[in-house]
Design brief:
CBS-domain; 16 strands; single chain; Rossmann fold; alpha/beta
Length: 369
């Protein structure tokens, strides 16, 4: 856990970079520091590992007051990743990743094993990348090496200062996915500086929004920041499309799903027609005896004689129960059936319609504290 208590940073010229900041980051959380340029994001980050000393206040790392400990030893307990990566150009990837293990006295075999383990972890084949030099890597690959180096001695805390800002959009999307996968495995306590609210929403457990002068405007989950901005400044910063952004952090909730008539593949079309007509709709879903979704049947296709199996079609749009509302909304836009089937490991749960999508958003706002 990281806890900042009444942290202030005032420079000799009288300028206040951070003003009386209180912030707590729970173990395993990703805290995103966002705000306009000059609002104290990077200064806050650097005070945690004492690259910048606070003018007043206290900073605690797992209960230890870091303002009273040896700064060199402190920095070896904290991984640090910056936008420019900072790899040593004259050293190969293996030597770069092994920098801190060498400093703390690891033997060669232990360091080599750790290098290979970390390269594998960040998605770089050790046999292919271990002996390459930074200039032989793409921007995304260099950034992955930087993350591997920061994790070398398994620090409990990771500080990241706009690490993906210089990467092209396609590579950035991939490395975001890689970061989420990696964090799911290593579960570090992360403080991450970004100017991009979309990146903050995608990657963060909680978002801290700072305004000029290093004043904290709001510290909350992405859903709360987007659904209930704490001030006009926050509302303006997250953007007028915050309702759309909110879809990306809200999971499909089975409680909000609508229903359709359910028929088995072997049922007769007459039974299917009755089921659809009784429901007052135009579709039925086809599931097997184990509840797995196998298709859909329209009311028009149910006319005549025969079995459901003969007339059913593939369901036009499906999402998993753990998907976001953004995923479901995207499927609604791509297909013209007017509904998306939600499945859990193949088993049919219900459908999401434009009406139920709106109800889910409305109810989530009502439930927010």
């Amino acid at each position: 856990m990281i806890r900042l208590e009444s942290i202030t940073k005032r420079f000799p010229d009288g300028r206040v970079a951070v003003d009386n900041l209180d912030l707590e980051v729970d173990e395993g959380d990703v805290c995103m520091l966002v705000g306009p340029s000059g609002c104290g994001k990077t200064t806050t980050l650097k005070m945690i590992n004492r690259l910048v000393e606070p003018s007043s206040g206290r900073i605690y790392l797992d209960g230890d007051d870091v303002t009273t400990v040896d700064p060199v030893g402190l920095r070896r307990r904290i991984g640090y990743v910056i936008q420019q990566v900072g790899l040593f150009p004259h050293q190969n990837v293996a030597a770069n990743v092994a920098t801190v293990p060498r400093l703390v006295g690891w033997d060669r075999q232990r360091a080599k094993a750790r290098v290979d383990e970390l390269l594998q972890l960040v998605g770089l084949d050790p046999a292919q990348f271990r002996d390459r030099y930074p200039h032989q890597l793409s921007g995304g690959q260099r950034q992955r090496v930087g993350v591997a180096r920061a994790l070398a001695v398994d620090p409990p805390v990771l500080l990241m200062d706009e690490p993906f800002g210089a990467i092209d959009p396609i590579s950035r999307d991939r490395i975001h996915q890689e970061f989420l996968r990696l964090q799911g495995e290593v579960k570090k306590t992360v403080v991450f500086v970004t100017h991009d609210i979309n990146e903050a929403v995608r990657l963060g457990t909680r978002i801290a929004i700072l305004r000029q002068g290093g004043v904290l405007e709001q510290y909350a989950s992405a859903a709360e920041v987007l659904g209930r901005p704490a001030s006009p400044f926050v509302a303006d910063f997250v953007g007028s499309d915050r309702g759309v952004k909110r879809l990306s952090v809200m999971a499909v909730d089975v409680a909000h799903l609508a229903t359709l008539p359910v028929v088995e593949p072997g049922a007769g079309l007459a039974d299917a027609r009755h089921a659809i007509d009784d429901a007052g709709g135009v579709w039925a879903v086809v599931v097997d005896v184990d509840g797995r979704l196998v298709g859909a049947l329209s009311r028009r296709a149910a006319n005549g004689d025969g079995s459901v199996r003969e007339r059913s079609v593939e369901v036009p749009a499906t999402v998993e129960a753990g998907a976001t509302l953004k995923d479901a909304f995207s499927q609604l836009l791509l297909h013209d059936a007017g509904w998306v089937a939600v499945v859990d490991d193949g088993r049919f749960c219900g459908i999401l319609t434009p009406d139920s999508l709106y109800a889910a958003i409305r109810d989530s706002l009502a439930d927010d504290p």
